[in-house]
Amino acid sequence: MKDELYYLDETCLGELYHFDLYQDLAEDTAVYPDRGDNIYYPALGLAGEAGEVCEKIKKIMRDQKGHLTKENAEELVKELGDVLWYVANLACEINSTLSNVAETNLRKLKDRKDRGVLKGSGDNR
Fold this sequence. Notes:
5 helices, mainly alpha
C-alpha cells in the first residue's frame, strides 16, 4: 500500500462506484425496525462490530503475544465485513453513498496532507 495520497483525480475517483454496488447488495440484506428512517440501529451495530474487532485484537495481544496468525486474520476479515455492512447501511440512512463517503474522506485527507496537518488532532485541522 502506498504512503502517499495521489491519484486523486476523476479517473481514480470514478472507480469508487464499486462501493456503491456493495452498498446496494448490503442494503438488500438489511432487516431492522424503521429501515429507511433509523440511523440508530446501524450506528449502534457499527459500534458493536467495531468493538468485536478490538476484542479479537486484544485477545491476540493477550494470548498470542501479538502474533497474528492466518486464522486470526481470517476472523478479523469476517468482523471487518460486519463493520462495512453497518457503515454501508448507515450511509443509506443518511441518504449518502459509500462512494461519496470514501471520496469525501480521501479529499479531506489529501487536503490535510497538502497542508502538512495529517498528524495531530481535531476534526477541522
